[in-house]
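Schema walkthrough. Field components (list of strings):
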Amino acid sequence: MRDIIYQYDGTFNGLLCCIFERYTQKERPTAIVCAEDAEWSLFETRLVVTDPAHASRVARSLRRISPEVLPLLQRAFLTCLPDKELAICRFVARLYREGAPYLSRLSDDAYQPLLRAVRNLATEAEHLRGFVRFSVYDGALGAVIEPKNRVLPLLRAHFCERCRGESFFLYDRTHREALLYSGGVSRIVPLDGFEPAPPDAEEAAYRRLWRRFYDTIAIRERENPRKRMSDMPKRYWAQMTEFQTEDAAALPPDAP
Amino acid sequence: MELLDKLTILADAAKYDAACTSSGVRRGAHDGMIGCTSSALAGCCHSFSADGRCVTLLKVLLSNDCSYDCKYCVNRRGNDVPRATFEPRELAELTIGFYRRNYIEGLFLSSAVLGSPDRTTERMVEALRVLREEYRFNGYVHAKAIPGTSSELVTRLGLLADRLSVNIELPSEGSLRALAPNKTKQAILAPMRQIRDEVVESKTELVKYKSAPRFAPAGQATQLIVGATAESDRHILNLTESLYKQYRLKRVFYSAYVPVVENTLLPALGTKPPLLREHRLYQADWLLRFYGFCAAELLSEDEPNFDPRLDPKCCWALRHPEYFPVEVNRADYEALLRVPGVGVVSARRILVARRTGPLRADDLKKLGVVMKRAQYFLTCSGRLATPLRLSRAGVLASLLAVERAALPMEAGEQLSLFAPAR
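Field assembly_structure (string):
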């Protein structure tokens, strides 16, 4: 069998078209890569053009097997699972072969990694629902996060409901996109960079109050750094008010 | 006094309360109101303090200026500490400011007794009314009902709060008499009964009328102090069980006693809080609520305390060899739940995964079963997960080794390559 690499446009529909291509061409791609980060390779490379008609045919076939499949794959597509495209492709191939009963084989090698990645995504979103720290800039709320997975679609409904009647933005620095919400409408847009402005007096005062509360509420005799770290991994700390000193909070995060 | 200093005093005075959850209620968002409690029924942790406890709510006292003299308490009248009291508007603004920035999910309001229980509760009701009605706050509110408060005031408090709690603190009448002379068992149980009845009543009303007022929709909770007095684990667990059954509590919290005061009736200052004991009680509490165990199964008159070295479920399993091994591919959900190393989630996954074919030992690991513990108690299609059949003592030794790694230094002897020669 020939070794072939698929390039696609990095969208979920594009990935469905790769699945379509795989079956119409009767071949097995060795890799599926996003056209933007494709590297020069010895293998034959083909650009799979995203055709909405093809994508919806694949989607329909999956929906016929079970209504749970597409939501699962859409979530898997947001995870940071290495080679997630190929993993999704392998899973779909097994699913086509074995039908709906395959969905209960939770420990299968083509299924379990996907489930674990999706669970990991859900955990990260759950963490961030709590750990996001907004600042008030001229009446609007703004926050920066650095998640491993693309969590913004999962945080969207939660923060839009919580901050109803406000305007806010949530910038995902890892994936360079932002969730914007204003006047009851939310959008997720690509955004190349964002540096938070220094806090005004009121904002600085609230940060100080929160840091003081956080430090006071801990019982010294019960200190337990291991538990704190397992419940709130250190990678979140950089963006959390309670771990910023007053001076550092006033400076942009990348300043020396 | 500056707000920063007030917050410091009143948060410091409230920190020994273990409860900090926003679970059990859903408040949808409304136009013109601030916030909602939409993070599902499980609650939402916004931070974890240095002691590893979850921070969900702005946990403060309305005032720490107490007229009572409970011996175990930092805020007792006889103690020389700075005193402060929040103004209702000040507290409301602080809550909203924190809430908007996503620091917290809501407010946890408790208070020292200002003169009398009624007077205190009146001021709490006023503070919550300002927060809810004037500042239109729609997030979570947990309020303490002070023992001895009149029932009208408890009702008004419950209509403003999502959850109410009355702290029992000392788990027996004798301890209460000795250490909290201003409180009586009756004064504590009366509001608990009232809250139980009003919650039920409000739920029935809500079925009939959508707009009926909601009384403490997230139910009630309480806290027991562990280690200040001599009660056994068995006594505490039996009390817990009856609180869940008779008073329909949502949660019972345990708080390892941190000595804050020198008194001959109490552990000396500098005594380490019994954290491991508290941990074992929480484990047992989970077994009662989610695993179908009852208190009498876990502890008996001969063994009134938990073995600190091993979790209560493992202890139970070792005492009941007749129950094991459990066959993974056939056992029902309840039987699976009783296996050490199998939890609610992994038991459910087993039920799903075995539909398509028999499970093997390596499948179980992928389903999230902790095989370090479960291996001694399971068979997969008749085969033991561990090929060796071990004696009870052998299993105990292996389980202890697994557990020791997770225990804090104080428990059990730590093995070290560099231990000084003896």
